[in-house]
Write a structure and sequence with these properties.
Rossmann fold, globular, two-stranded parallel ribbon, three-stranded parallel β-sheet, binds zinc ion
Length: about 180
């Protein structure tokens, strides 16, 4: 499923991934991983065209995104009957982060008004400090302004809205 200017976030995310790996900060990838008859698809009464169907090219990460070998990948939305915008919904992401003694998360990706927003809100709910890299997210904007409204909702809920250059600097300063 195409997101306008969605590919612009990839080189920025790659810089953050690289800085995180140098600083030994865990990098976790989340993805939609839908069965062909997922409830969010129009044929089942949902609002989306079919997307991210398990095992198809549509479910692959962007070819330029640098996903390290052995990276932690969280698949969500694999229950045919349940929508899962958030990486925390129906997954063990919160437990995994806690097991890694992670207390703060930095989020980037697609899309601002759905998966990024819900993941950020769930991360706050789960007690994490949350940062969203505004230059590393893009919105679907089903209704014009949805992306901007999502950013303000995320901020109001208690997350920090940052630029990825800040995240890269922070990680460089924690490097040993
Ligand atoms: Zn989906």
């Amino acid at each position: 499923m195409a997101v306008k200017e969605g590919d612009e976030v990839v080189p920025r995310l790659n810089k953050v991934i690289k800085a995180a790996r140098s600083a030994r900060v865990p990098v976790i990838f989340t993805r939609d991983w839908h069965p062909a008859d997922h409830i969010s698809f129009r044929a089942q009464g949902g609002i989306w065209p079919p997307h991210c169907v398990q095992g198809t090219p549509g479910a692959a990460f962007h070819p330029s995104l640098e996903v390290p070998a052995g990276a932690t990948i969280i698949s969500k939305g694999d229950d045919p009957g349940a929508e899962a915008y958030s990486g925390f919904q129906g997954t063990d992401l919160a437990q995994r982060l806690s097991a890694m003694r992670v207390s703060e998360v930095i989020i980037g990706g697609l899309t601002t008004d759905y998966c990024v927003k819900q993941s950020a809100l769930d991360a706050l709910q789960a007690g994490f400090k949350v940062n969203v890299m505004e230059d590393c997210v893009r919105a679907v904007d089903v209704k014009p302004g949805d992306g901007a409204r999502a950013i303000s909702a995320i901020r109001k809920a208690g997350a920090k809205i940052i630029d990825s250059s800040i995240a890269v600097k922070q990680m460089a300063s924690t490097q040993q």
